[in-house]
Every structure is written in structure tokens, then in C-alpha cells.
Amino acid sequence: MTQIKxxxxxxxxxxxxxxxxxxxxxVRTAIYYGLDVTGIRRGYDGMIKGDLFPMDRQSVSNIIQRxxxxxxxxxxEQFKTVEGRKQAFENxxxxxxxxxxxxxxxxxxxxxxxxxxxxxxxxxxxxxxxxNDLCGTDFTIGYDTAINTVIQAVDKIRDTxxxxxxxxxxxxxxxxxxxxxxxxxxxxxxEAILIPESKTDLQAVFEKLERGRKDKKSKIIMLAENGEAGxxxxxxxxxxxxxxxxxxxxxxxxHIQRGGSPSCMDRVLASRVGVAAVEGLMAxxxxxxxxxxxxxxxxxxxxxxxxxxxxxxxxxxKIVDIxxx
Length: 325
Fold this sequence. Notes:
This protein is α/β, with parallel strands linked by helices and 325 residues long.
């Protein structure tokens, strides 16, 4: 087994709160074990363009509380090509990088898996995505902060909904995963939650609204973006047609969910898996994501981590039906 001397670290895909805490953990753990660390700006795009620089303790000072990523992030079509990956490898060699820590989601890990296999490069991934849609970890870095951001926003929406007797349809991120909508919908006391994992039955939503308490002054419907029944505006249009007496409004939370200072949970999660990533590389792990399962460090092959078969707990949907009455 080749001894690792220089670890490259990068963030890729969508940003998530806690990425900086993860970068900090990787850099300081590597230094603790006497390894060099190379930062790679803007993910695979920076790897191809040679935007690499040495990092030290000072490089990650006072960043654990900051949202976003100091290494920046970008998507790279060029990295999907053989030529792009070859250029990236040449740049890594020029900077004497012999292992990588990839912080991101399924797209990041898909690229890392191919790259690691093509060039025999040891790579360990950290689950950085607000969607919580990776297998091999109970929670992803950024998910806790994102759902708390949503809850704060919906609580404020509920205030104005109560004041005006309104029905609000709140659309949150989660193009392929409804975990943000599901968990925040329960916490916000939503009347209905529409997610991609459960086929949308608008007639059932209509019936729920019909039999709902007439004295309730506000109603909230949580919706994951790009659902098969349409976006928030399409759902809103159909509700207005069915219930013209409702003062129906739309609120799309958008990228506010990605920003902000990471929660304590996300900072601790990022720190734990960041340390484990460096120690894992030193122990010979490669082409794996490190996460927490039942509060214990676990390594999962990239192939298994990026499978989109996250099961929704049916009890959660039952809770919504019970508590919305």
C-alpha cells in the first residue's frame, strides 16, 4: 500500500452549511498526522484548470461557523470527458497530490468513483448535501441546518396566514428527495405534504381540506420541488379552482435553504466525518463515503451511497394524517 503524503480536498455540486467545518476537519487532521494538504478551488473545474494551493492551519481558521464553502464549488461538464479527467490528474500529479477527500453529493461521488478507478487514486467522500439523499449515513452535512431554516420561514408564514385566514403552499428543495418537505411539514403542522416518494393524489388533498376543521384560521401545504403533479403554482391553481373561497398563496423558499451558519449538529457531524476521512485514507480506504449510522462512523462504497432508493418511513406519513385533523 502506497503511503499517503499529500491529501487534496475539494467541494463540488450544490453547497451546504457545514462544508467549511468539514474542510477544517480534513485540513487539521491531516496536519496532525504530518501530512500535506492541497486545497482545490471550484471542485472538478478547478482540478482541470489547475486551481490548487497548499493549505495550513491558518487557512481554515475562523471558518467552522460560516456557511457556504471557502473552496468554492462548481459543476464541470469537462470532467465528464476522458480528456478532462486526464488533465485533472496531470494537475494533481504536478502538485504531488496522492489522495483526495471529496465533499458533495451523488454527482460528486459519481465523478470521484470513475476518476479513482481510472487513475488508481485513493478517494474518500464526505456527504455534503442538504437533501439527505445518500445511503450510508443517517444525516448528511447541511440537512439539519436546512430543515431548521425552513421551519423558521414556515413559522413566519404561518403568522401571516393566521392573520389573513390564508392557505399557503410552501415549496422547498428536493427535486429527487422529499425528506426536507416531509420532516419540516411534520414540524410545521402542515395539513398535507407532497413528496416524490409518494404518488401525489390531489383528490385526497382536496378531501383533506374539505373535512378539515372549519375554525382553523390557516393552512399549510408542504411541497417538494418538481413533483409529478406540478410545481407550487400548478397545485395552487387547482386548489383555487376547487376552493375559490380560500385565499391561496404561494411561497417558494428557494436557495435560502442552502445558506446560513451551520447548526451545532452539522458542525459536529462535519468534524467527525472529516477526521474519519483522513484516518480512513491512511488506513487504506478508497472509493468510499464516510458517514454516521446509528451514531457510529461507517464507510460505504460510492456505488451504494449514490443509489436513490432512500425509503420513506411510512409512520411519518401516518403522523401527518393523524395530526392534521
